[in-house]
Structures
1.
Amino acid sequence: MPPVTILPPNFAAPISSPPRTALPFAVDWLFSPDPVAYPDAVAFMEDRVAAIREGTANPAVWLLGHPPLYTAGTSADPKDLLAPDRFPVYASGRGGQYTYHGPGQRVIYVMLDLKALGGDVRRFVHALEAWGIAALARFGVAAETRADRVGLWVRRGGTREDKIAAIGVRVRRWVSFHGMAINLAPDLSHFSGIVPCGIADHGVTSLRDLGIAAEMNALDAALAETFGPIFAELAE
């Protein structure tokens, strides 16, 4: 059966033609310019992942944003929700703890067939990290991973390190969903309602906080340009 069209909420034409990749399958790039309610985003991902698994839709990368909200991953500790009435709070099936989403943040939901990419979930997560690092490098940001904490981190001098991107994924029958959120220019005070990802000893930053006046479309272009080479390596 040929792939069917399953479009996300608030869909618009994707960013200018993402480069072709060496992946063993076609990838649809989806784009929602207006904020998408979290329950609507999860419902769309559930439908798309089921269709990918059944072979009736292509794998996809979805670029979007959310209105201000907190999500609780499968490892979330209730004591890390410091302001439960500040924004809506949603339980999430992704891994990880509490995360903030809101305007000025690029959310990237990645729905890929991991069996066709070697069937290694750990390598897939490392590829997500490498992708975020490569995209941020286009803006002169040296993001790094840490063995003892998730996400992408930026050194701020001395022992201070701030998180610039959160990563949390779910895999169902070898199809991935959820993914990564990169801070372009969100209101960083919104993170104060939670202990982000359960880590109280470090802060949160963004491209704007680092003094980089980038536009969201430039970040989207960097993500599109760096995606193919990194994820193609999983299929080798």
2.
Amino acid sequence: MKTIVLLLTLALAQPVLAQPASSKEPRQHPALADFDTKGLDDMRAKVQAVVNRPADLSPEKVAAFDKARLAAQGGDAAAQLELAQMLHEGEGTPRDLDAGLAWMRKSAEGGYAPAQAFLGVAYTLGQGMPVDRKLGEYWSRKGAAQGVELANFTVAQHFENIHSSPEEQAHALHWLKFYAEKGFIPAYNEIGYRLMMTAKDEAQRREAFSWYMQAAKALDPSGLNNVAYAYEVGRGAPQSDEAALGWYELAAIAKSPPGQTGFARLLEQGRGGPTRQGPAPKPLELYLLAAKQGDTEAIERLVKVFENGELGQQASPIRAAQWREKLHMEQVP
């Protein structure tokens, strides 16, 4: 459905970093800058305006709705999905999301593959209903079995992973690469991760790294972090603290919590040389940013910082206990 595409596009949009208000202000490393969400807020407003636009009750649309309704009531599964979309979009009828979902479900239960694919997405992402991953997987796999691209990608992205059977892993990589070739940037890093975790030799690790690099060059935060880590540990790329620091720095600027932690770790250990994008921030500031976003490595480091009085901080059992509690909360499934 159109709204699903709009919401996915919005979810993937990247905020823009705030720029210094004046060149006279002390320079701050961009990794510590707040997001300027004005551009994202404008995009949200435009999307919401489309979603909430008045129903189109023109005679032509009303006639099309009545035609679809009669066919749907007669058991035509394709018409049932069309009716669901018209109810969702307010075409020829006032919007009624619940009725739209009911007709989509009826179409899916009738065996119509596109409806199964859309229903799988709706359950998986919680669009118009609570998230239910079991039902999301069930309907996505039903649609995938009939060859629907959207259903295959949903299964590959959400329900097949490195712990799946070799057949499912191959299926997932096929569809991830299919969408990567269409320019879907998050697929690049996902492919790299899956290949890296299952690599059996350095040639396969280099292939995985090449996908990480494609994601990083598109400024995908996870891709930037994974390129940095690959250089740090010499996996799929030559070990290089200097390269690792540079990529972690970019990942931290892109607000990747693992990137912030990696950047802090190398700065704290004095590895990689000088920073490239601005004056080196204090590692503690970066650990705090990452920890507030739930990065467990950063939280673990802060527990030790306040237990032992490190990184210029006084020992504080209270603050150590607070971070230990946050670590526990992050580790609870």
3.
Amino acid sequence: MLLIYPSIAYALTLIVMVIHNRQMHAAQDIQREITLSSKKHKLWIHFLLFILLVLHGSACYQDIFTPQGLVFGFAQALSMMAWVGIAIYWIEGWFFTLQGMLPLMLLLAAAFSFLPAVFSGAIISTKAVHSPGFKLHFITANIAYGTLFLVAIQAALMNLQDRSLRSKQQNQPISWINVFARGQKSTWLNQLPPLVTMERVMFNMMGIGFCLLTITVFSGLFFSQTLFGRVLILDHKTLFAVISWVMFGSLLFAHWKVGLRGAEASKWVLRSFLVMLLAYVGSRFVLEVILQRL
């Protein structure tokens, strides 16, 4: 139940940020005030995110690594993925103007961090909680998933940026989400860096995530035998994990070799991430929610 508190904090932060953005737009006729307010806003956002990360991280650790064993399920996996994604965003935010990503990230983090309060998961191993090696494998896996989660959000926003540019060129009406996020007729996507910068950051993060995913996939072979007493079985979870690993690797190779980029690259990122989600989150969701088996 500890994870319900980060979800409330994420939601409140999102509400405060939306209200602040509306106030900034109301004062847009004074450019100096906007500049000063934007700097203060950025510092306050970083401070609030740091508090949220500490709260959410502490709750995740206490709910997953228990004295009885390692408790995990699809809800815990999504919550950890959101935490890592927010953490990486917090680091990136010092170097890039990525505030346009924040509303979507906070919304997803609020939803994902609430799920473990409803779906408690199950003890998947009594040995794992006492194994430093498995803890390292577990942490690496979650960092990989969180990094690729952030990459997927960047890909989705790149698609929205591209559509926004096309709609402006074609004089199409704006969508309701722009009005909600900024309270005005200019898109909140304007807070993001140019598409070229977003694409470079996306592929850099994807390279890091792919390396971590590689370590996760192959280290899982070792821990499957030592902790669970069986070699890796080619079930649907393993199959989807390997397929997603191949898809991300192929995407990086295509970007390096033939220059795959733009909307087509971002679509393949989202497809690869969806397959990766099916590997563990999807299988645990079926067991816990649909089949009612822990």
4.
Amino acid sequence: MRFDVVTLFPELFAPFLEAGVTRRAYASGQIGLKFWNPRDFADGNYRRVDDRPFGGGPGMVMQAEPLARCVQAALADRQTAAAAAIAAPEASPPPVVLFSPVGAVLRHAAVAHWAQSRGAVLICGRYEGVDQRFIDTFVTHQISLGDYVLSGGEIAALALLDAVARLQPGVLGDAGSHQADSFNPAMDGLLDCPHYTRPEDWRGQRVPAALLSGHHAQIERWRRERQLALTASARPDLIAAARAQQRLSREDETFLSAATARRQRPAAGGPKGEKTL
């Protein structure tokens, strides 16, 4: 797959592409990356890519024309690269993605989709935003990382690329590592359980006995129960989704019911622990 990244700051990506296990996806060619700077397609001595917004207001807006030329060059280059590799040209233009608050929040299902795609053109906006006419003409998808605003789309693009890279075969040391990730369907979409390593006793806190038992079934049940408890506490919406998809077993439901009853049980001595007569 290939991702073309449209950014005013391609240098921000270099450290992330050369460190950590995900670098294997780029070194092996499983993911191809090419960077495009809109300034290279702007007019004038100063190569301006932004201007004041019509109607007034703070900040600047990225102009449509430099971005349009940049994206068109990236699309043409993809076709040229396919021809040079004696590969079939892309039957249709690749997705053009803008990182924006308008988009759906990036979740595991979307990452899994992009991890098996042919790639996309990623637009990293800056300033107050991008001229809406460019969005209406070229953008096919919009993605958000959450309900907050970043100074640019580069961090969001890196998040997508990192998440996609780690799902490529051979990138992680253990081929099944990502199957145990939080949100993965293999984990019923729930949060992962807590993890422990040596020493067994750290500052008076011991590793849970079940993990030291050597009993495989006991270990797996402990992990499942901790997964359920943590998800029910931190992300009850994920429990509800798993229940709606009939991913929870009878044993899971029994544990959750007991855990809920324990939480709702009054403290010893009556409400709020006060003494009773």
